[in-house]
TrEMBL record:
<dbReference type="InterPro" id="IPR041122">
    <property type="entry name" value="RecJ_OB"/>
</dbReference>
<comment type="similarity">
    <text>Belongs to the RecJ family.</text>
</comment>
<dbReference type="GO" id="GO:0006281">
    <property type="term" value="P:DNA repair"/>
</dbReference>
<feature type="domain" description="DHHA1">
    <location>
        <begin position="353"/>
        <end position="441"/>
    </location>
</feature>
<dbReference type="InterPro" id="IPR001667">
    <property type="entry name" value="DDH_dom"/>
</dbReference>
<keyword id="KW-0540">Nuclease</keyword>
<feature type="domain" description="DDH">
    <location>
        <begin position="77"/>
        <end position="234"/>
    </location>
</feature>
<feature type="domain" description="RecJ OB">
    <location>
        <begin position="458"/>
        <end position="564"/>
    </location>
</feature>
<dbReference type="InterPro" id="IPR004610">
    <property type="entry name" value="RecJ"/>
</dbReference>
<keyword id="KW-0378">Hydrolase</keyword>
<dbReference type="GO" id="GO:0008409">
    <property type="term" value="F:5'-3' exonuclease activity"/>
</dbReference>
<dbReference type="Pfam" id="PF02272">
    <property type="entry name" value="DHHA1"/>
</dbReference>
<protein>
    <recommendedName>
        <fullName>Single-stranded-DNA-specific exonuclease RecJ</fullName>
    </recommendedName>
</protein>
<keyword id="KW-0269">Exonuclease</keyword>
<dbReference type="GO" id="GO:0003676">
    <property type="term" value="F:nucleic acid binding"/>
</dbReference>
<dbReference type="GO" id="GO:0006310">
    <property type="term" value="P:DNA recombination"/>
</dbReference>
<dbReference type="Pfam" id="PF01368">
    <property type="entry name" value="DHH"/>
</dbReference>
Protein backbone atom coordinates (compact mmCIF):
# COMPACT_ATOMS: atom_id res chain seq x y z
CA UNK A 1 0.00 0.00 0.00
CA UNK A 2 1.35 3.41 -1.01
CA UNK A 3 0.45 6.13 1.47
CA UNK A 4 1.01 9.84 1.00
CA UNK A 5 2.52 11.75 3.90
CA UNK A 6 0.62 14.84 4.96
CA UNK A 7 1.93 17.12 7.72
CA UNK A 8 -1.08 18.86 9.27
CA UNK A 9 -1.35 22.65 9.27
CA UNK A 10 0.61 24.45 12.01
CA UNK A 11 -1.26 26.53 14.60
CA UNK A 12 -0.94 30.34 14.41
CA UNK A 13 0.50 32.73 17.02
CA UNK A 14 -2.96 33.92 18.12
CA UNK A 15 -3.96 30.33 18.94
CA UNK A 16 -0.74 29.72 20.87
CA UNK A 17 -1.37 32.71 23.18
CA UNK A 18 -4.25 30.80 24.81
CA UNK A 19 -1.93 27.98 25.90
CA UNK A 20 1.20 29.74 27.16
CA UNK A 21 2.04 27.00 29.67
CA UNK A 22 1.89 24.13 27.17
CA UNK A 23 4.62 22.60 25.02
CA UNK A 24 4.40 23.33 21.27
CA UNK A 25 3.79 19.62 20.53
CA UNK A 26 0.79 19.52 22.89
CA UNK A 27 -0.58 22.77 21.41
CA UNK A 28 -0.26 21.28 17.92
CA UNK A 29 -2.12 18.12 18.98
CA UNK A 30 -4.95 20.20 20.46
CA UNK A 31 -5.13 22.31 17.30
CA UNK A 32 -5.22 19.23 15.06
CA UNK A 33 -8.18 17.87 17.07
CA UNK A 34 -10.28 20.96 16.51
CA UNK A 35 -9.94 22.19 20.09
CA UNK A 36 -10.16 25.95 19.72
CA UNK A 37 -10.12 27.42 23.23
CA UNK A 38 -9.04 26.77 26.80
CA UNK A 39 -12.49 25.59 27.96
CA UNK A 40 -12.60 22.94 25.22
CA UNK A 41 -9.09 21.87 26.21
CA UNK A 42 -10.13 21.47 29.87
CA UNK A 43 -13.19 19.41 28.83
CA UNK A 44 -10.94 17.27 26.64
CA UNK A 45 -8.29 16.59 29.28
CA UNK A 46 -10.76 16.21 32.15
CA UNK A 47 -13.74 14.18 30.91
CA UNK A 48 -16.70 14.55 33.27
CA UNK A 49 -19.55 12.05 33.52
CA UNK A 50 -21.79 14.91 34.65
CA UNK A 51 -21.33 16.49 31.20
CA UNK A 52 -23.10 13.60 29.46
CA UNK A 53 -26.07 14.99 27.53
CA UNK A 54 -29.64 14.69 28.81
CA UNK A 55 -31.28 11.57 27.27
CA UNK A 56 -34.58 13.48 27.07
CA UNK A 57 -33.10 15.57 24.26
CA UNK A 58 -33.50 12.49 22.04
CA UNK A 59 -36.65 12.59 19.94
CA UNK A 60 -39.29 9.98 20.95
CA UNK A 61 -37.48 8.96 24.15
CA UNK A 62 -40.53 9.64 26.33
CA UNK A 63 -42.80 7.68 23.96
CA UNK A 64 -40.35 4.77 24.18
CA UNK A 65 -40.02 4.74 27.98
CA UNK A 66 -43.80 5.07 28.49
CA UNK A 67 -44.41 2.05 26.25
CA UNK A 68 -41.72 -0.03 27.94
CA UNK A 69 -43.08 0.83 31.42
CA UNK A 70 -46.58 -0.22 30.26
CA UNK A 71 -45.14 -3.53 29.04
CA UNK A 72 -43.38 -4.09 32.39
CA UNK A 73 -46.48 -3.23 34.42
CA UNK A 74 -48.77 -5.43 32.33
CA UNK A 75 -46.27 -8.32 32.14
CA UNK A 76 -46.18 -8.17 28.34
CA UNK A 77 -43.56 -10.15 26.46
CA UNK A 78 -40.71 -7.82 25.37
CA UNK A 79 -38.11 -8.91 22.81
CA UNK A 80 -34.83 -7.05 22.37
CA UNK A 81 -33.87 -7.48 18.74
CA UNK A 82 -30.09 -7.11 18.41
CA UNK A 83 -27.29 -7.44 15.93
CA UNK A 84 -24.39 -9.88 15.61
CA UNK A 85 -21.42 -7.50 15.90
CA UNK A 86 -19.91 -6.26 19.18
CA UNK A 87 -21.93 -3.04 19.14
CA UNK A 88 -25.13 -5.00 18.61
CA UNK A 89 -24.28 -7.67 21.19
CA UNK A 90 -23.34 -5.15 23.89
CA UNK A 91 -26.42 -3.02 23.11
CA UNK A 92 -28.61 -6.11 23.56
CA UNK A 93 -26.88 -7.00 26.84
CA UNK A 94 -27.23 -3.45 28.25
CA UNK A 95 -31.00 -3.27 27.67
CA UNK A 96 -31.53 -6.91 28.69
CA UNK A 97 -29.70 -6.51 32.02
CA UNK A 98 -31.69 -3.41 32.99
CA UNK A 99 -35.06 -4.85 31.96
CA UNK A 100 -34.29 -8.07 33.80
CA UNK A 101 -33.44 -6.07 36.93
CA UNK A 102 -36.76 -4.23 36.53
CA UNK A 103 -38.45 -7.67 36.52
CA UNK A 104 -39.73 -7.29 32.96
CA UNK A 105 -40.82 -10.32 30.97
CA UNK A 106 -37.93 -10.00 28.57
CA UNK A 107 -36.25 -12.12 25.93
CA UNK A 108 -33.62 -11.45 23.29
CA UNK A 109 -33.21 -12.29 19.62
CA UNK A 110 -30.04 -11.90 17.57
CA UNK A 111 -30.43 -12.97 13.93
CA UNK A 112 -28.08 -15.52 12.41
CA UNK A 113 -25.67 -13.56 10.21
CA UNK A 114 -25.69 -16.04 7.32
CA UNK A 115 -29.20 -17.50 7.48
CA UNK A 116 -31.08 -14.27 8.30
CA UNK A 117 -28.78 -11.30 7.78
CA UNK A 118 -28.92 -7.85 9.32
CA UNK A 119 -32.00 -6.25 10.87
CA UNK A 120 -35.61 -7.19 11.50
CA UNK A 121 -37.09 -9.88 9.27
CA UNK A 122 -40.63 -11.14 8.77
CA UNK A 123 -39.86 -14.74 9.73
CA UNK A 124 -38.65 -13.67 13.18
CA UNK A 125 -41.72 -11.42 13.57
CA UNK A 126 -43.94 -14.42 12.81
CA UNK A 127 -42.10 -16.33 15.54
CA UNK A 128 -42.56 -13.48 18.06
CA UNK A 129 -46.27 -13.37 17.21
CA UNK A 130 -46.67 -17.05 18.13
CA UNK A 131 -45.02 -16.25 21.49
CA UNK A 132 -47.56 -13.45 22.14
CA UNK A 133 -44.86 -10.78 22.01
CA UNK A 134 -46.33 -7.28 22.31
CA UNK A 135 -43.20 -5.12 22.10
CA UNK A 136 -39.96 -5.30 20.11
CA UNK A 137 -37.05 -3.02 21.01
CA UNK A 138 -34.42 -2.95 18.27
CA UNK A 139 -30.84 -2.10 19.22
CA UNK A 140 -28.15 -1.11 16.70
CA UNK A 141 -30.62 -1.76 13.85
CA UNK A 142 -34.14 -1.05 12.66
CA UNK A 143 -33.89 2.37 10.99
CA UNK A 144 -33.94 0.75 7.52
CA UNK A 145 -36.69 -1.79 8.26
CA UNK A 146 -39.71 0.06 6.84
CA UNK A 147 -41.62 -3.01 5.61
CA UNK A 148 -40.77 -5.19 8.60
CA UNK A 149 -42.00 -2.62 11.13
CA UNK A 150 -45.28 -2.28 9.17
CA UNK A 151 -45.58 -6.09 9.19
CA UNK A 152 -45.05 -6.21 12.96
CA UNK A 153 -47.76 -3.59 13.40
CA UNK A 154 -50.19 -5.77 11.41
CA UNK A 155 -49.37 -8.60 13.80
CA UNK A 156 -50.24 -6.39 16.78
CA UNK A 157 -46.63 -5.85 17.86
CA UNK A 158 -45.32 -2.37 18.72
CA UNK A 159 -41.74 -1.54 17.70
CA UNK A 160 -39.36 0.85 19.46
CA UNK A 161 -36.30 1.46 17.28
CA UNK A 162 -32.95 2.39 18.80
CA UNK A 163 -30.29 2.83 16.15
CA UNK A 164 -27.36 5.04 15.16
CA UNK A 165 -26.98 4.26 11.47
CA UNK A 166 -27.63 6.76 8.71
CA UNK A 167 -31.33 7.49 8.30
CA UNK A 168 -32.87 6.55 4.93
CA UNK A 169 -35.27 8.82 3.06
CA UNK A 170 -38.19 6.58 4.01
CA UNK A 171 -38.28 5.76 7.75
CA UNK A 172 -40.35 3.07 9.49
CA UNK A 173 -43.67 3.95 11.07
CA UNK A 174 -42.51 2.69 14.48
CA UNK A 175 -44.09 3.59 17.81
CA UNK A 176 -40.83 5.41 18.66
CA UNK A 177 -37.51 5.97 16.88
CA UNK A 178 -34.47 6.85 18.96
CA UNK A 179 -31.67 7.84 16.62
CA UNK A 180 -29.79 11.14 17.07
CA UNK A 181 -29.28 11.33 13.30
CA UNK A 182 -32.98 11.51 12.46
CA UNK A 183 -34.61 14.69 11.18
CA UNK A 184 -35.87 16.99 13.92
CA UNK A 185 -33.76 15.39 16.65
CA UNK A 186 -32.28 17.98 19.02
CA UNK A 187 -29.68 15.73 20.60
CA UNK A 188 -26.40 17.72 20.38
CA UNK A 189 -24.11 14.76 19.60
CA UNK A 190 -24.86 12.72 16.49
CA UNK A 191 -22.10 10.09 16.60
CA UNK A 192 -23.16 7.73 19.40
CA UNK A 193 -22.67 4.03 18.74
CA UNK A 194 -25.61 1.64 19.02
CA UNK A 195 -24.48 0.86 22.58
CA UNK A 196 -24.48 4.58 23.38
CA UNK A 197 -28.07 4.98 22.13
CA UNK A 198 -29.14 1.88 24.09
CA UNK A 199 -27.50 3.30 27.21
CA UNK A 200 -29.43 6.56 26.76
CA UNK A 201 -32.68 4.59 26.56
CA UNK A 202 -32.05 2.71 29.82
CA UNK A 203 -30.94 5.93 31.52
CA UNK A 204 -34.24 7.59 30.65
CA UNK A 205 -36.18 4.43 31.55
CA UNK A 206 -34.60 4.25 35.01
CA UNK A 207 -35.27 7.96 35.62
CA UNK A 208 -38.94 7.48 34.66
CA UNK A 209 -39.42 4.38 36.79
CA UNK A 210 -37.69 5.89 39.83
CA UNK A 211 -39.90 8.96 39.47
CA UNK A 212 -43.06 6.87 39.05
CA UNK A 213 -42.30 4.59 42.03
CA UNK A 214 -41.08 7.57 44.10
CA UNK A 215 -37.99 5.63 45.12
CA UNK A 216 -34.68 4.50 43.64
CA UNK A 217 -35.44 1.14 42.01
CA UNK A 218 -32.12 1.29 40.16
CA UNK A 219 -29.45 3.76 41.25
CA UNK A 220 -27.39 5.92 38.87
CA UNK A 221 -24.37 4.15 40.35
CA UNK A 222 -25.65 0.79 39.13
CA UNK A 223 -26.05 2.17 35.62
CA UNK A 224 -22.41 3.27 35.62
CA UNK A 225 -21.39 -0.37 36.00
CA UNK A 226 -22.86 -0.91 32.51
CA UNK A 227 -20.28 1.47 31.05
CA UNK A 228 -17.82 -1.36 30.37
CA UNK A 229 -20.32 -2.74 27.84
CA UNK A 230 -21.09 0.74 26.43
CA UNK A 231 -17.35 1.38 25.92
CA UNK A 232 -16.89 -2.03 24.26
CA UNK A 233 -19.61 -1.25 21.72
CA UNK A 234 -18.44 2.32 21.20
CA UNK A 235 -14.74 1.54 20.66
CA UNK A 236 -15.32 -1.57 18.54
CA UNK A 237 -17.72 0.26 16.20
CA UNK A 238 -14.99 2.84 15.47
CA UNK A 239 -17.26 5.85 16.02
CA UNK A 240 -15.45 9.17 16.64
CA UNK A 241 -13.98 9.18 20.18
CA UNK A 242 -14.81 12.83 20.74
CA UNK A 243 -17.36 14.71 22.87
CA UNK A 244 -19.72 12.25 24.60
CA UNK A 245 -18.03 9.19 23.10
CA UNK A 246 -14.75 10.30 24.73
CA UNK A 247 -16.54 10.44 28.10
CA UNK A 248 -18.05 6.99 27.48
CA UNK A 249 -14.67 5.51 26.47
CA UNK A 250 -12.78 7.19 29.32
CA UNK A 251 -15.11 6.03 32.12
CA UNK A 252 -16.03 2.79 30.38
CA UNK A 253 -12.39 1.71 30.31
CA UNK A 254 -12.11 2.57 34.01
CA UNK A 255 -15.13 0.34 34.72
CA UNK A 256 -13.69 -2.39 32.48
CA UNK A 257 -10.45 -2.30 34.47
CA UNK A 258 -12.40 -3.37 37.59
CA UNK A 259 -15.39 -4.98 35.89
CA UNK A 260 -17.92 -7.09 37.77
CA UNK A 261 -18.88 -8.81 34.52
CA UNK A 262 -18.06 -12.49 34.99
CA UNK A 263 -18.02 -13.19 31.25
CA UNK A 264 -15.55 -10.41 30.46
CA UNK A 265 -13.26 -11.57 33.29
CA UNK A 266 -13.18 -15.13 31.92
CA UNK A 267 -12.72 -13.96 28.33
CA UNK A 268 -9.75 -11.82 29.42
CA UNK A 269 -8.17 -14.86 31.10
CA UNK A 270 -8.52 -16.94 27.95
CA UNK A 271 -7.19 -14.08 25.80
CA UNK A 272 -4.23 -13.63 28.15
CA UNK A 273 -4.90 -9.96 28.87
CA UNK A 274 -5.06 -8.02 32.12
CA UNK A 275 -8.22 -5.92 32.29
CA UNK A 276 -6.51 -3.63 34.82
CA UNK A 277 -4.61 -2.22 31.81
CA UNK A 278 -7.74 -1.71 29.68
CA UNK A 279 -7.26 0.58 26.69
CA UNK A 280 -8.76 0.93 23.18
CA UNK A 281 -6.11 -1.40 21.71
CA UNK A 282 -7.08 -4.19 24.11
CA UNK A 283 -10.76 -3.66 23.34
CA UNK A 284 -10.33 -3.34 19.57
CA UNK A 285 -7.75 -6.05 18.94
CA UNK A 286 -8.06 -8.55 21.80
CA UNK A 287 -11.54 -8.51 23.35
CA UNK A 288 -13.78 -7.45 20.42
CA UNK A 289 -12.44 -9.94 17.83
CA UNK A 290 -13.28 -12.82 20.17
CA UNK A 291 -16.81 -11.52 20.76
CA UNK A 292 -17.24 -10.89 17.03
CA UNK A 293 -16.02 -14.39 16.18
CA UNK A 294 -19.29 -15.89 17.45
CA UNK A 295 -21.40 -14.09 14.85
CA UNK A 296 -18.81 -14.46 12.09
CA UNK A 297 -18.24 -18.20 12.41
CA UNK A 298 -21.33 -19.55 14.24
CA UNK A 299 -24.04 -17.61 16.14
CA UNK A 300 -23.65 -14.37 18.12
CA UNK A 301 -25.89 -15.73 20.90
CA UNK A 302 -22.79 -17.31 22.49
CA UNK A 303 -21.16 -13.89 22.90
CA UNK A 304 -24.37 -12.37 24.29
CA UNK A 305 -24.77 -15.22 26.79
CA UNK A 306 -21.17 -14.67 27.90
CA UNK A 307 -21.91 -11.00 28.66
CA UNK A 308 -25.00 -11.71 30.78
CA UNK A 309 -23.99 -14.84 32.69
CA UNK A 310 -23.13 -14.76 36.38
CA UNK A 311 -21.87 -18.36 36.35
CA UNK A 312 -18.06 -18.68 36.21
CA UNK A 313 -18.15 -22.22 34.84
CA UNK A 314 -20.51 -21.27 32.00
CA UNK A 315 -18.40 -18.16 31.31
CA UNK A 316 -15.26 -20.29 31.09
CA UNK A 317 -16.86 -22.72 28.62
CA UNK A 318 -18.25 -19.91 26.46
CA UNK A 319 -14.90 -18.07 26.50
CA UNK A 320 -13.07 -21.17 25.28
CA UNK A 321 -15.66 -21.56 22.53
CA UNK A 322 -15.10 -17.96 21.38
CA UNK A 323 -11.32 -18.45 21.51
CA UNK A 324 -11.59 -21.47 19.21
CA UNK A 325 -13.90 -19.65 16.78
CA UNK A 326 -11.59 -16.65 16.71
CA UNK A 327 -8.58 -18.81 15.86
CA UNK A 328 -10.54 -20.41 13.01
CA UNK A 329 -11.55 -16.94 11.81
CA UNK A 330 -7.94 -15.67 11.89
CA UNK A 331 -6.61 -18.65 9.94
CA UNK A 332 -9.35 -18.44 7.31
CA UNK A 333 -9.03 -14.69 6.71
CA UNK A 334 -5.21 -14.88 6.56
CA UNK A 335 -5.35 -17.68 3.98
CA UNK A 336 -7.83 -15.77 1.78
CA UNK A 337 -6.04 -12.40 2.05
CA UNK A 338 -2.63 -13.92 1.27
CA UNK A 339 -4.05 -15.51 -1.88
CA UNK A 340 -5.73 -12.26 -2.93
CA UNK A 341 -2.45 -10.38 -2.48
CA UNK A 342 -0.80 -12.82 -4.89
CA UNK A 343 -3.72 -12.53 -7.35
CA UNK A 344 -3.55 -8.73 -7.40
CA UNK A 345 0.22 -8.32 -7.36
CA UNK A 346 0.56 -7.87 -11.12
CA UNK A 347 -3.07 -7.08 -11.96
CA UNK A 348 -4.49 -3.82 -13.25
CA UNK A 349 -6.66 -2.47 -10.45
CA UNK A 350 -10.00 -0.75 -11.12
CA UNK A 351 -10.93 2.38 -9.18
CA UNK A 352 -13.40 0.24 -7.24
CA UNK A 353 -12.40 -3.37 -6.53
CA UNK A 354 -15.06 -6.10 -6.55
CA UNK A 355 -14.23 -9.39 -4.81
CA UNK A 356 -16.65 -12.32 -4.95
CA UNK A 357 -16.33 -15.99 -4.08
CA UNK A 358 -19.06 -18.58 -3.58
CA UNK A 359 -16.98 -20.36 -0.93
CA UNK A 360 -16.72 -17.36 1.41
CA UNK A 361 -19.24 -16.81 4.17
CA UNK A 362 -20.71 -13.39 4.91
CA UNK A 363 -19.21 -13.40 8.41
CA UNK A 364 -15.71 -12.67 7.13
CA UNK A 365 -16.25 -10.50 4.05
CA UNK A 366 -16.00 -7.25 6.04
CA UNK A 367 -12.58 -8.30 7.34
CA UNK A 368 -11.40 -9.26 3.85
CA UNK A 369 -12.68 -5.97 2.41
CA UNK A 370 -10.89 -4.00 5.14
CA UNK A 371 -7.57 -5.77 4.66
CA UNK A 372 -7.67 -5.54 0.87
CA UNK A 373 -8.71 -1.86 0.85
CA UNK A 374 -5.61 -1.15 2.93
CA UNK A 375 -3.49 -3.29 0.63
CA UNK A 376 -4.77 -1.86 -2.68
CA UNK A 377 -5.63 1.74 -1.68
CA UNK A 378 -9.06 1.30 -3.23
CA UNK A 379 -12.66 1.01 -2.01
CA UNK A 380 -13.35 -2.74 -1.87
CA UNK A 381 -16.75 -4.42 -2.31
CA UNK A 382 -16.42 -7.98 -0.97
CA UNK A 383 -19.26 -10.43 -1.61
CA UNK A 384 -20.41 -13.87 -0.55
CA UNK A 385 -23.22 -15.91 -2.10
CA UNK A 386 -25.83 -17.47 0.17
CA UNK A 387 -28.61 -19.42 -1.51
CA UNK A 388 -30.21 -16.99 -4.00
CA UNK A 389 -28.80 -13.86 -2.36
CA UNK A 390 -25.47 -12.07 -2.64
CA UNK A 391 -24.36 -10.29 0.52
CA UNK A 392 -21.74 -7.60 0.32
CA UNK A 393 -19.52 -5.63 2.64
CA UNK A 394 -17.74 -2.41 1.66
CA UNK A 395 -14.66 -0.89 3.27
CA UNK A 396 -12.56 2.08 2.26
CA UNK A 397 -9.16 3.25 3.46
CA UNK A 398 -9.28 6.13 0.99
CA UNK A 399 -11.34 9.32 0.69
CA UNK A 400 -14.54 7.63 -0.52
CA UNK A 401 -18.06 7.93 0.93
CA UNK A 402 -19.39 4.37 1.18
CA UNK A 403 -22.99 5.07 2.22
CA UNK A 404 -23.36 7.85 -0.35
CA UNK A 405 -22.12 5.52 -3.08
CA UNK A 406 -24.38 2.65 -2.00
CA UNK A 407 -27.39 4.98 -2.17
CA UNK A 408 -26.71 5.42 -5.91
CA UNK A 409 -27.53 1.73 -6.44
CA UNK A 410 -30.41 1.45 -3.95
CA UNK A 411 -32.88 0.31 -6.65
CA UNK A 412 -30.74 -2.79 -7.30
CA UNK A 413 -30.36 -3.73 -3.62
CA UNK A 414 -32.73 -5.73 -1.44
CA UNK A 415 -31.37 -3.61 1.41
CA UNK A 416 -28.28 -1.63 2.34
CA UNK A 417 -26.84 0.57 5.10
CA UNK A 418 -23.69 1.88 6.71
CA UNK A 419 -21.46 4.89 7.29
CA UNK A 420 -18.88 6.98 5.40
CA UNK A 421 -16.09 4.34 5.56
CA UNK A 422 -18.04 1.08 5.81
CA UNK A 423 -21.32 -0.41 4.66
CA UNK A 424 -23.20 -3.51 3.66
CA UNK A 425 -25.81 -4.58 1.12
CA UNK A 426 -27.64 -7.54 -0.33
CA UNK A 427 -28.97 -8.22 -3.83
CA UNK A 428 -30.45 -11.01 -5.91
CA UNK A 429 -28.04 -13.22 -7.86
CA UNK A 430 -29.71 -12.31 -11.17
CA UNK A 431 -28.96 -8.61 -10.53
CA UNK A 432 -25.23 -9.13 -9.93
CA UNK A 433 -23.97 -8.58 -13.52
CA UNK A 434 -25.90 -5.31 -13.83
CA UNK A 435 -24.60 -4.22 -10.42
CA UNK A 436 -21.00 -5.10 -11.32
CA UNK A 437 -21.18 -3.17 -14.59
CA UNK A 438 -22.69 -0.07 -12.95
CA UNK A 439 -20.31 -0.01 -9.95
CA UNK A 440 -17.17 -0.33 -12.08
CA UNK A 441 -18.48 2.35 -14.44
CA UNK A 442 -19.24 4.60 -11.45
CA UNK A 443 -15.69 4.10 -10.18
CA UNK A 444 -14.16 4.98 -13.56
CA UNK A 445 -16.36 8.03 -14.15
CA UNK A 446 -16.79 9.53 -10.69
CA UNK A 447 -13.63 8.81 -8.71
CA UNK A 448 -10.71 11.16 -9.14
CA UNK A 449 -7.09 10.16 -8.56
CA UNK A 450 -6.83 12.21 -5.33
CA UNK A 451 -9.80 10.32 -3.90
CA UNK A 452 -7.90 7.06 -4.31
CA UNK A 453 -4.99 8.11 -2.15
CA UNK A 454 -4.48 6.98 1.40
CA UNK A 455 -2.91 9.58 3.66
CA UNK A 456 -0.80 9.35 6.78
CA UNK A 457 -1.77 12.44 8.75
CA UNK A 458 1.36 13.59 10.58
CA UNK A 459 0.94 15.86 13.60
CA UNK A 460 4.35 17.57 13.58
CA UNK A 461 7.98 17.24 12.55
CA UNK A 462 10.27 16.45 15.50
CA UNK A 463 13.99 16.18 16.07
CA UNK A 464 15.28 13.30 18.20
CA UNK A 465 16.30 15.92 20.77
CA UNK A 466 12.57 16.79 21.23
CA UNK A 467 11.68 13.25 22.30
CA UNK A 468 11.80 12.43 26.02
CA UNK A 469 9.73 10.84 28.78
CA UNK A 470 8.02 14.14 29.56
CA UNK A 471 6.73 14.40 25.98
CA UNK A 472 5.55 10.78 26.15
CA UNK A 473 3.61 11.54 29.36
CA UNK A 474 2.04 14.62 27.75
CA UNK A 475 0.87 12.52 24.80
CA UNK A 476 -0.62 9.94 27.21
CA UNK A 477 -3.02 12.64 28.45
CA UNK A 478 -4.74 12.52 25.05
CA UNK A 479 -5.88 8.94 25.67
CA UNK A 480 -8.13 7.11 25.01
CA UNK A 481 -7.13 7.17 21.35
CA UNK A 482 -9.51 6.24 18.57
CA UNK A 483 -11.34 7.57 15.53
CA UNK A 484 -10.89 11.39 15.29
CA UNK A 485 -8.36 11.24 18.15
CA UNK A 486 -5.79 8.91 16.67
CA UNK A 487 -2.55 8.11 18.44
CA UNK A 488 -0.19 10.87 17.22
CA UNK A 489 2.16 10.29 14.31
CA UNK A 490 5.38 12.31 14.03
CA UNK A 491 8.03 12.64 11.35
CA UNK A 492 11.81 12.92 11.65
CA UNK A 493 13.94 13.34 8.53
CA UNK A 494 17.50 12.30 7.72
CA UNK A 495 17.85 9.64 10.41
CA UNK A 496 20.83 7.28 10.12
CA UNK A 497 20.59 3.52 10.64
CA UNK A 498 23.12 2.16 13.16
CA UNK A 499 21.76 -1.39 13.44
CA UNK A 500 19.13 -3.44 11.61
CA UNK A 501 17.95 -7.01 12.19
CA UNK A 502 14.87 -9.06 11.38
CA UNK A 503 12.90 -10.41 14.32
CA UNK A 504 9.66 -12.24 15.08
CA UNK A 505 7.95 -15.22 13.54
CA UNK A 506 9.04 -15.71 9.92
CA UNK A 507 11.34 -12.66 10.38
CA UNK A 508 8.35 -10.47 9.51
CA UNK A 509 9.42 -7.50 11.70
CA UNK A 510 12.54 -5.33 11.62
CA UNK A 511 14.28 -4.01 14.74
CA UNK A 512 16.39 -0.87 14.24
CA UNK A 513 18.76 1.38 16.13
CA UNK A 514 18.57 4.91 14.73
CA UNK A 515 20.63 8.02 15.38
CA UNK A 516 20.49 11.73 14.62
CA UNK A 517 22.72 14.50 15.96
CA UNK A 518 24.20 12.23 18.61
CA UNK A 519 20.88 10.93 20.02
CA UNK A 520 19.89 7.28 19.54
CA UNK A 521 16.53 5.49 19.66
CA UNK A 522 15.45 1.89 19.24
CA UNK A 523 12.69 1.45 16.66
CA UNK A 524 10.49 -1.37 15.41
CA UNK A 525 8.84 -1.82 12.00
CA UNK A 526 6.07 -4.43 12.13
CA UNK A 527 4.96 -6.77 9.33
CA UNK A 528 7.36 -5.44 6.71
CA UNK A 529 10.05 -8.09 6.59
CA UNK A 530 10.61 -7.43 2.87
CA UNK A 531 11.45 -3.77 3.57
CA UNK A 532 13.98 -4.93 6.18
CA UNK A 533 16.28 -6.14 3.40
CA UNK A 534 16.88 -2.55 2.24
CA UNK A 535 17.62 -1.14 5.72
CA UNK A 536 21.38 -1.38 5.95
CA UNK A 537 23.96 0.23 8.25
CA UNK A 538 24.67 3.89 7.46
CA UNK A 539 21.58 4.46 5.31
CA UNK A 540 19.73 7.78 5.77
CA UNK A 541 15.93 7.52 6.00
CA UNK A 542 12.86 9.64 6.83
CA UNK A 543 10.51 7.99 9.33
CA UNK A 544 6.87 8.41 10.41
CA UNK A 545 6.28 6.93 13.85
CA UNK A 546 4.47 6.74 17.18
CA UNK A 547 6.30 7.18 20.48
CA UNK A 548 5.95 4.17 22.76
CA UNK A 549 7.28 3.05 26.13
CA UNK A 550 9.05 -0.29 26.08
CA UNK A 551 9.38 -2.31 29.29
CA UNK A 552 11.85 -5.20 29.45
CA UNK A 553 13.27 -6.89 32.54
CA UNK A 554 12.13 -4.04 34.75
CA UNK A 555 13.77 -1.39 32.56
CA UNK A 556 11.75 1.29 30.76
CA UNK A 557 12.88 3.04 27.59
CA UNK A 558 11.23 4.99 24.78
CA UNK A 559 10.85 3.19 21.47
CA UNK A 560 9.68 4.44 18.08
CA UNK A 561 6.98 2.37 16.37
CA UNK A 562 7.54 3.07 12.68
CA UNK A 563 4.41 3.36 10.54
CA UNK A 564 6.20 4.20 7.30
CA UNK A 565 9.62 5.20 5.99
CA UNK A 566 11.33 6.52 2.88
Amino acid sequence: MVREWKILKKFDDEYKKQFKDLDDVVIQLLYNRGIRDKKQAVDFFQPSYEKMFDPYLLKDIKKATDRIIKAIDEKEEIVIFGDYDVDGITSTAIVYKILEKLKAKVNFYIPHRIQEGYGLNKKSIDFFSTKKTKLIITVDNGISNFEEVAYAKKKGIDVVITDHHEVPKKIPNALAIINPKQKGDKYPFKDLAGAGVAFKLVNALVLEINKKKKKEIISPGYLKWCLDLVALGTISDIVPLVSENRIIAYFGLLVLSKTRNVGLKELAKVAGVDLKNSDPYMVGFQISPRLNAAGRMAHAASAFELLITSDELEAGVLSMKLEKLNKERQDLVLKIVNQLKIDYKESKINNIVLLKNEEWNSGIIGLIAGRMSGELSRPVFCMAQEREIIKGSVRSDVDFNVIETLSVFEKIFINYGGHKNAGGFSLKIEDYNLFKEQVLQYGDNKLKEEELKSYLNIEKELEFSDINIDLYNQIKKFEPFGNKNEEPLFITKNVKIKESKKVGKDSSHTKLKLTKNGKDFSAILFNHGDVGDSLYYGKDIDIVYKIDLNEWNGRKSLELKIEDLK
